[in-house]
Design brief:
heterotrimer, A alpha+beta, B mainly alpha, C mainly alpha, A: alpha+beta, Rossmann fold, 2 domains, 6-stranded mixed beta sheet, 6-stranded antiparallel beta sheet, 23 strands, C: mainly alpha, MetI-like fold, 0% strand
Chain lengths: 437, 301, 286
């Protein structure tokens, strides 16, 4: 068992850059996911770890041993392919035994280890079947058994569940995680399915546009996305661009220098408001207007640990509209708060992420807390456990809210007015563009 | 009647009339092939059981005499044996040479080079077999290019006789038939999912072992389908052996040609033809059976 | 393992993070060996063609290597010879009769076989492609015997029939490729819009399988133009085609003008190939 170190990897094909300066470490025994939209370079990175591609610059180390330049058959890696890649002319047990026979493992031990591996995936009874006689899920498990039979240092999974139907995929996710726990093998999963990555991984590396956008636990990347790309790629978001409120509006208190970011590199001025014992910063969102001509006032708790802006810097983004190519499903992720012009906010504006499930809904006039606005229902999509409700503000802009099913005995009617409210720490500042970590 | 019902009935009628139309399209070919492929073979089969008198006039009686002649005359049995052997050797060499050629065709990264290889492979198929054979005469003759080059290089003193023997026939055959072996092989090589080779390599097999354990087994169907064509062409052609091997080579097609065109013993030629057809048929059937068995292992048939 | 990339200890894991350019993986001797073998095979395929070109432009009866001078005298003798003229005329006439007939028959058969479902279809398919496998000497002798019986042997029709039999499988094969890649839902859509099977075939199917038909026509023309095995049996002195004439010259005498006509044949073949490549794509039909 051993960790994997990806050291400053870049890869270019001709004049196309597939990966640039990716640097990360996967710890021993960890379940690590590489998550990103198609074309983000995650498969290229996996192929380089496996040895099917060589990096243009940088190095790869497995368990302290540099493997860059080594052919795949010298890397001692187990790999499960998207199409399973079972050898169609070999039976299930011959498939699993393949790597062992190549290694000239004694016949008896081969039998023993094949049985062991098939037991691990609960397919002992299928040893003599041919691959074409198996279902998709069974093939998947044979592929896992085959990869593990050689007792590799690390296991690479290339979108292994994407060819399975939804229910089977859930079962296989659980099984995959169990197998990984039982064997303790360092595992890298490549996937474009954020839910899969969130529920399976110890840590996730999010790739976008050939760069590592964020590296962190599932909780990190969902709750504290480092930039707009990550925020929009994982889950659904309301993105709100807001400018610090004028000092005069801050109840007379002097503007506070709020040191932000782990490195504290990006100080910027926002009037501090004392509210319930916390220091809150006040912002005005021009695109969200509770009444015409009246920008919505946002109170954000920039020091709150939950919303702690790990990588936040208030510097205006130079990143162009690339983030607008986010893969978030149109119509479901409400980013109406950011009109086209807000993609690159004017100097001084801050981009806030407000997750739809963080907004609470109360009857008109009954909303509580410092952040609150009346809004009218403009659309409802019922998804069983969750209601996706789109609210229009009286002035301009809209917000998407995910409410839980029991909260609405009757579905809200379009036009109905509610109060929306959220806590200051639910407003998470994010970097406006995508960028290197 | 509901609108849907009417539509369903008219769709059914449309299907029926489409079927009729398709049989109409098929029937001229059926008629043509029956008249000029099936009937001649039945006639040939009947002819092969006819007797001849000493002046080779066909008699109205039937017997196995021609077949007895074919299988008991030592010269003819030897001819059958050497025909089989020559066809098998040609097939073997073609298959061996086809692998690297198909590999290059499938794996070359450049599109231009691939098209070039394709043209090299296919253009011989479009060139008359007489012309391709003729080139070998120019190359292998006493005063041909090979001898001339060897003499100029002082490797030999007097020209080697390279033509008019079985080796010349095999060399020319291999060149004439190689494309038939390469093309199906390249197709089946190209159909192997690239991840299978990758899976083999990540499991620890180098390229050579990957070839023998993955690529070779998976290309057996393509290899066999090429081998079938090469074998039946090699066993059944007479132009190439006649021109580079000479009339006296002990090959069945040559014997048939002579009996038909020079000796005018048509019943004997017919019996030999049926024999040749059987040899080819058995090989084709065997290869077909092997292919089916192998593919049945890999997928439901 | 002798690979010198492996550091002696694990220290390089945390080593300098500055990107360093990497040498490309060396081309392995195995790759070189495979390529050498493959290129030799292609060389073996092309050498005879080169020899023919060399000979055709060589002034001597037997070509020299390396050639000392070039000449076009064999081309001249070709164009002045009456025998070659009549052979060319016969070949061209045959091609013009054989190609359309074979294409019509083959297209209909390939389309019908692609759409019909019936018992014994596989057998019928093998029967239609069988002329590719049947020993040519057997085909020749069987046709010779039948045509003699029918008294068709001294006319051009014997050759027409023989060539059609040989060219037919090629047309069936290329058209079948196009038919099988044609979505039959398009035809159903046309029928649901009220078109009968005939107008559907004419308006939808034919235009969509045209590449296969073009390729089939070219194969059929080239096959007919180069056919010799069956022609030798069924041609008469009046109906000698170019390949039969070439065969005669090679078999009886040695006439270097054969080289010249061969060059013309090869050039035509490569031209046909390029046309196929442009219309349907070479890789699809073979």
């Amino acid at each position: 068992m051993s960790g994997i170190r990806i050291q400053e990897i870049s890869k270019t094909f001709g004049d196309q850059t597939a990966l640039s300066h990716v640097d990360l470490e996967v710890f021993e025994g960890e379940f690590f996911s590489l998550l990103g939209p198609s074309g983000c370079g995650k498969t290229t990175l996996l192929n380089m770890i496996a040895g099917f591609l060589e990096p243009t610059t940088g190095g790869i180390f497995i368990g302290g041993r540099e493997v860059t330049g080594l052919p795949p058959y010298r890397r001692e890696i187990g790999m499960v392919f998207q199409d399973y890649a079972l050898f169609p002319h070999l039976s299930v047990s011959d498939n699993v035994a393949y790597g062992l026979r190549i290694r000239k493992v004694p016949r008896k031990e081969v039998q023993e280890r094949v049985r062991e591996s098939l037991a691990l995936v609960q397919l002992e009874a299928y040893a003599s079947r041919m691959p074409h006689q198996l279902s998709g899920g069974q093939r998947q498990r044979v592929a896992i058994a085959r990869a593990l039979a050689i007792r590799p240092a690390v296991l690479l999974l290339d979108e292994p569940l994407s060819n399975l139907d939804a229910k089977l995929r859930k079962d296989m996710q659980t099984e995959l995680r169990n197998i990984q726990r039982r064997t303790g093998i360092t595992t890298i999963l490549v996937t474009h399915d954020q839910e899969e990555a969130l529920s399976l991984s110890d840590r996730i590396g999010i790739l976008g546009d050939g760069r590592l956008q964020q590296l962190g636990t599932p909780l990190d990347v969902y709750r504290r996305p480092s930039n707009r790309f990550v925020a929009e790629f994982i889950g659904q978001v309301n993105l709100i661009a807001a400018a610090p409120e004028a000092a005069s509006a801050a109840g007379g208190s002097s503007p506070a220098e709020a040191p932000l970011g782990a490195a504290g590199t990006a100080p910027y001025a926002a009037p501090a408001v004392r509210e319930g014992g916390a220091n809150l910063a006040a912002f005005a969102a021009a695109q969200l207007q509770a009444a015409p001509g009246e920008p919505l006032r946002l109170l954000a708790d920039l020091a709150a640990p939950e919303g702690g802006a790990a990588a936040f810097s208030g510097a205006p983004a130079s990143a162009p509209a690339a983030a607008s190519a986010s893969p978030a499903a149109p119509g479901s992720a409400a980013i109406s708060a950011s009109a086209p012009g807000a993609v690159s906010p004017q100097s001084g504006e801050t981009l806030f992420m407000l997750r739809p499930e963080r907004i609470r809904v109360a009857a008109a006039g009954e909303g509580a807390g410092v952040n609150r606005t009346p809004a009218a229902v403009s659309g409802v999509s019922y998804a069983g456990n969750v209601l996706r409700i789109r609210f229009e503000l009286a002035g301009s802009g809209s917000l998407t809210v995910h409410a839980s099913d029991p909260d609405f005995p009757a579905l809200p009617e379009p036009g109905q007015v509610y109060d929306l409210y959220w806590r200051p720490q639910d407003l998470i500042p994010v970097l406006p563009g995508e960028g290197p970590l | 009647m509901s609108e849907q019902g009417t539509r369903r009935i008219s769709a059914k009628r449309g299907k029926a009339s489409a079927g009729l139309f398709q049989w109409l399209l098929l029937s001229p070919s059926l008629l043509f092939l029956t008249l000029f492929l099936l009937v001649p073979f039945v006639m040939l089969l009947v002819l092969s059981f006819r007797d001849v008198d000493s002046l080779l006039t066909v008699l109205p009686t039937y017997s196995f005499s021609q077949y007895i002649d074919v299988f008991t005359t030592p010269a003819y049995s030897r001819t059958i044996g050497s025909t089989l052997w020559m066809a098998l050797v040609t097939t073997g060499i073609c298959v061996l040479m086809a692998y690297p050629a198909a590999y290059l065709l499938v794996r070359t990264p450049s599109r231009g080079l691939r098209t070039f290889f394709y043209i090299l492979l296919v253009s011989p198929l479009l060139t008359s077999v007489v012309i391709r054979t003729f080139a070998w005469i120019v190359l292998l003759a006493q005063n041909g290019l090979v001898n001339e080059v060897l003499i100029n290089l002082h490797l030999i003193n007097k020209p080697l006789s390279l033509l008019w023997n079985m080796n010349a026939v095999i060399i020319a055959y291999v060149q004439v038939m190689l494309p038939f072996a390469v093309l199906p092989l390249a197709t089946s090589m190209g159909e192997i999912p690239p991840n299978l080779r990758r899976a083999s390599m990540i499991l620890g097999a180098g390229r050579i072992r990957t070839f023998f354990r993955v690529t070779l087994p998976l290309t057996i169907p393509g290899m066999l389908s090429g081998a079938v064509i090469v074998f039946s062409l090699a066993a059944g052609s007479y132009i190439t052996p006649l021109l580079v091997g000479g009339r006296l080579q002990p090959l069945l097609p040559l014997a048939i040609y002579q009996q038909a065109v020079q000796v005018f013993n048509l019943p004997l030629a017919a019996a030999m033809s049926i024999t040749l057809l059987l040899i080819v048929g058995i090989f084709v059937a065997l290869a077909g059976w092997a292919t089916k068995r192998w593919e049945g292992r890999m997928r439901d048939v | 393992m002798s690979d010198n990339h492996i550091p002696a200890n694990g220290s390089s894991v945390s080593g300098s993070s500055a990107p360093r350019p990497r040498k490309r993986r060396r081309i392995s001797p195995l790759t070189i060996a495979i390529w050498a073998a493959g290129l030799l095979v292609y060389g073996f395929l092309i050498v005879p063609v080169l020899v023919i070109f060399l000979s055709a432009f060589s002034p001597q009866e037997y070509p020299q290597f390396p050639p000392e001078s070039l000449s076009v005298r064999w081309f001249e003798s070709l164009f002045t010879s009456r025998q070659w003229h009549s052979a060319l005329w016969n070949s061209a006439l045959l091609l013009l009769i054989v190609t359309p007939l074979t294409v019509i028959l083959g297209t209909g058969a390939a389309y019908a076989l692609g759409r019909l479902q019936f018992r014994g279809k596989q057998l019928l398919q093998s029967f239609m492609l069988s002329p590719l496998m049947i020993p040519q000497v057997v085909l020749g002798i069987a046709l010779l015997y039948e045509l003699t019986t029918l008294r068709l042997i001294n006319s051009i029709w014997g050759l027409v029939i023989g060539h059609m039999i040989v060219a037919f499988p090629y047309v069936v094969r290329t058209v079948s490729v196009s038919v099988s890649s044609l979505d039959s839902k398009l035809e159903l859509a046309s029928m649901s819009l009220g078109a009968g099977p005939v107008s559907t075939f004419r308006r939808i199917t034919l235009p969509l399988i045209r590449p296969g038909i073009v390729a089939g026509a070219i194969f059929s023309a080239v096959t007919s133009f180069g056919e010799v095995s069956i022609s030798l049996f069924v041609s008469s002195p009046k109906t000698i085609t170019v390949p039969v004439r070439i065969f005669g010259y090679i078999d009886q005498t040695f006439d270097p003008s054969v080289n010249a006509i061969s060059v013309i044949f090869i050039v035509l073949a490569v031209a046909a190939l390029i046309v196929i490549d442009r219309t349907i794509g070479l890789t699809k039909v073979m």
